[in-house]
Amino acid sequence: MSLQGKTLFISGASRGIGLAIALRAARDKANIAIAAKTATPHPTLPGTIYTAAEEIEKAGGTALPIICDIRDEEQVKSAIDQTAAKFGGIDILVNNASAISLTNTQETTVKKYDLMHSINGRGTWMVSKYAIPHLIKSGKNAHILNLSPPLSMKEAWFKNNVAYTMSKMNMSMCVLGMAGELRRHKIGVNALWPLTLIGTAALTQVGDTSKMKLRTPDIMADAAYEIFLKDSSKFSGNFLVDELFLRREGFTDMD
């Protein structure tokens, strides 16, 4: 089994983990819609939807770069429609786009709170809403994958950055609810989260990472790929951690 001929819609795929997932799928000659805001070079972050498209094409895939702010309903609807029109449908949705602020309650501005919740929770729900009709029509092992943590109501996960964790848990609650909602349509809905910090350009924006042990986004891409190959009618409602899942699938080299 491979992703050849499948169409993926990935939010925030101009760089980082989203781009890594796109490139892994591109090796199978998949079609990939890159839905992100960065159309012109960012002053501090590398990559645009167009440079990502070039990388995807070089890797063997077919790319569709789309300017899309997932906070904007009309842009989301348009991006989904453009993808379905170009590739004949959508088979896999990856809700990757997120905003992050690892700050406590007093240090988190209301503007930052609103940004995280409008992108992470609301954006994930809204992109899913408009992709679902196409996923139902897919008939080709359709999946939704949210890059969000295992659901947990333990204080330890919330206490250091309440607003951010709340927003990411909203994404995970989408997994819990939509897995049940879409099971009759045989759509797999799962969450994926890293065991250790992933070295992305976005992470450098929130603090000094020079002394941290960071993995590359490739481990998340490999884990996502294995999820997409699973039977979506049976593999749903899971909250997966990259290394633990890959080890369970028989992978041993985590370098």
From TrEMBL:
It comes from the Eukaryota. This is Hydroxysteroid dehydrogenase-like protein 2. Signal peptide: none annotated. Coiled coil: none annotated. It comes from Linnemannia gamsii. It holds the Pfam family adh_short.
